[in-house]
Amino acid sequence: MSGRLSKAAVAACLVIGVTPGAAQAVGAERSATAQASAGCYVHVGSVTAGGDHAGKLVTVGAVSTDEPDTGVYPAGAVRVSGSMEADPDVTGYGGWIGGYTVLGSSMYATSYYLTLDGDVDRTRPTTYLVGGGWGDTTYFETTRFWDYPKLPNLIRQYQLRADGTLSRWDMQYNNANGTVKWANKQSATGFSAVKTMAMISQTLTYDTFLANTRGGALYTIRIPRTSPMKPIVKKVRTSTWQAFDSLVAEKCGRYGTMLVGIDKDTQSAYAYAVGHANGTATVIQGLGKVPATFADPVYFRRQIRQGDAQMLFGE
């Protein structure tokens, strides 16, 4: 893989539907709605029932659909997917997409290359088994913090289990022998009411998720990068958020978030502009129903590769 994005690579991002940056709102005083209208987006990725990678680029009042990457997984195998990062600037290829997925009851690191024609290169699939025992996973996400070119480059994994246990791992890489280690696992209990989550902040000192409950409440869960892991939970709203089975978020302006909530029962989605989270004082502006059908079983956030992706700062 080559260096940071060239102009050609940015153009390639747009062609394959991976947007490297959104227009920034000028100043924190602008409303969440104004920020969203200034060019914010959420790139909602999905895994179809047939195992294809699909995607929709959601903007305010509009949506465009990606050409699917077909046959990435066995049909019906994927239960949960973390965010997928895409590198559109790979010499000799049209791009690379990779991340972590739960297939059946096991976790895998999965990736694939695109040909210069945009098709999945069947000669270069890569799937590594991380381990078993993931069958009760209800949510998973990879946080990739890198304020390029500054160090550190931090990657952490988060898992929510059906019993309400929230766990975190540090990723440790050995470039000498190419090994990857999931290390320093830490957990906290008490999250059994959570239906799903979306990452809204990734900083040097903490990660934050926005979570809805089956009872309809909306919370932020801030997780400091200290040890032991001690989540800080704040209520944002008390009701009406129970319908969403998936939440996908992206940075909007300097301090806010654009959020898409997906209701699998009605195969519909709604967009919101969320101001910088501050408990019940958080400003949330409804942006309306997304004009598209959301019929896939698994959803996740699509992002440009680490180092070029926006660092989320919604809380």
Set down the secondary structure blueprint:
Layout: H1 7-16, H2 32-37, E1 42-47, E2 53-59, E3 62-65, E4 78-87, E5 95-103, E6 106-114, E7 126-132, E8 137-145, E9 154-161, E10 166-174, E11 179-188, E12 194-202, E13 206-213, E14 218-224, E15 232-237, E16 246-252, E17 256-263, E18 268-274, E19 284-289, E20 298-304
Parallel strand pairs: 4-20
Antiparallel strand pairs: 1-2, 1-20, 2-3, 4-5, 5-6, 6-7, 8-9, 9-10, 10-11, 12-13, 13-14, 14-15, 16-17, 17-18, 18-19
What's this model, at a glance?
This protein is mainly beta. It has a single domain (41-303), classed as Neuraminidase (6 Propeller), CATH 2.120.10. 5% of the residues lie in helices and 49% in strands.
Beta-strand portion reads over 45%
Estimated helix fraction: under 10%
**What is the 3D form?**
globular
Largest sheet: 8 strands, mixed
CATH architecture: 6 Propeller
Radius of gyration from the alpha-carbon trace, in angstroms: 18 Å
Structural class by sheet pairing and helices: mainly beta
CATH class: Mainly Beta
Order of helices and strands: HHEEEEEEEEEEEEEEEEEEEE
The overall average pLDDT, rounded, is: 89
Uncertain segments? 1-30
Strand order of the largest sheet: 3-2-1-20-4-5-6-7
Separation, N- and C-terminal Cα atoms? 33 Å
Total number of domains: 1
Number of helical segments with 4 or more residues = 2
Task: Report the CATH topology name.
Answer: Neuraminidase
Task: Kindly state the number of beta strands.
Answer: 20
